[in-house]
Amino acid sequence: MTTIQKTYRIDEDLQQKAEQYFSEMGLNPTVAITMFFKRVVDEKRMPFVPEVISERVDYSMESKERLSELLSKIPVKSISDISETERKELLDGWDL
Q: What is the rounded distance in angstroms from the CA atom of residue 30 to the CA atom of residue 47?
């Protein structure tokens, strides 16, 4: 097997964060990228479904706990089962 050296452009912050996670998993970027490429070749598709995410929000643990508490109080199986007014009251103060 012949190996090559290839250059790709990537956001520096993304690269640093990814390398941190790779390190925590005992990987280096070369191994991680090779794993990704092998999965694409083996499956003949992306190993995840690409989607547009308009904005990522990393809520604090306190916010996640508050949301979990609020959700546990919903007396219905689906939020679509309650009125728009009830939904607005339930989610008041949340910028979702």
A: 17
CA distance 14 to 53: 16
Contact of 38 with 32, CB cutoff 8 Å: no
Q: What CA–CA distance (Å, rounded) separates 13 from 36?
A: 20
pLDDT in tens, 67-83: 777 777 766 656 676 77
**Global pTM?**
0.51
> E strand or H helix at 63, and its extent?
helix 61-72
Q: How many alpha carbons lie under 13 Å from residue 34 in its C-beta half-sphere?
A: 8
96 vs 94: CA distance, rounded Å = 6
Q: Strand locations in 5-92, DSSP E?
A: none
Rounded Cα gap, residues 62 and 33, in angstroms: 35
